[in-house]
Write a structure and sequence with these properties.
There is one protein chain. The chain has 180 residues and is an alpha/beta fold. The protein has one domain: Rossmann fold (3-Layer(aba) Sandwich), CATH 3.40.50.300. Helix content is 44%, strand content 10%. It has 7 helices and 5 strands. A 5-stranded parallel beta sheet has the order 2-3-1-4-5, with helices on both faces. It is globular.
């Protein structure tokens, strides 16, 4: 039986690409912004918010699940977040509440976003080191200095499946956000 996989990287760290990779490996996933609790039972993999901030609860609810922290250069991440937030202003409701919970604001604030990113990365790594060291991997999906084979190997090793054929590219679902 395949383990559940949770992508616990923040938005704009390659979470869409991670979901595509998992679909290519046979995981049924819904992608981003899962707001309904019942959805967690229906899918094998979920990423992005609010999953990223609820990893500790998901670890308790789904024992044996795997966790992928997608990371990105913080300066590039901030530029991408600024474009994303300004393009999609937060309206009152659950999405706005999730942004406020995650970043401390519903609008883009470079200082608050930077602090949230660094805090999140540290908290995830600290938790996983103590609770799930063999069920966790960090993958810099947006880093063009890390070869695609290494990214595939890290993910496939975590979930216990063979890697795709050599040369299989990591899918870039949002190529305008790829670090160059």
């Amino acid at each position: 039986m395949r383990p559940r996989v949770f992508g616990v990287g923040l938005s704009k760290t390659g979470t869409t690409s991670l979901c595509k990779m998992l679909r290519m490996l046979g995981w049924k996933n819904v992608g981003h912004y899962v707001l309904e609790a019942s959805t967690y039972d229906e899918y094998d993999a979920i990423a992005d918010l609010p999953v990223a901030t609820r990893y500790h609860m998901l670890d308790l609810r789904f024992p044996g699940s795997r966790f992928v922290l997608t990371t990105r250069n913080v300066e590039s991440w901030l530029r991408s977040c600024e474009r994303w937030v300004n393009k999609r202003p937060s309206r009152p409701g659950q999405m706005s509440d999730i942004r406020l919970e995650t970043y401390g604001t519903t609008t883009f604030d470079e200082h608050m976003f930077r602090e949230a990113y660094l805090r999140h990365e540290k908290c995830v790594k600290d938790y996983m080191r103590g609770h799930a060291p063999d069920r966790f991997v960090e993958i810099p999906l947006c880093d063009h200095y890390t070869c695609d084979e290494d990214k595939w190997f890290a993910l496939c090793n975590l979930v216990g499946v063979p890697t795709p054929p050599r040369g299989t590219p990591v899918p870039w679902e949002n190529p305008s956000w790829k670090d160059i």
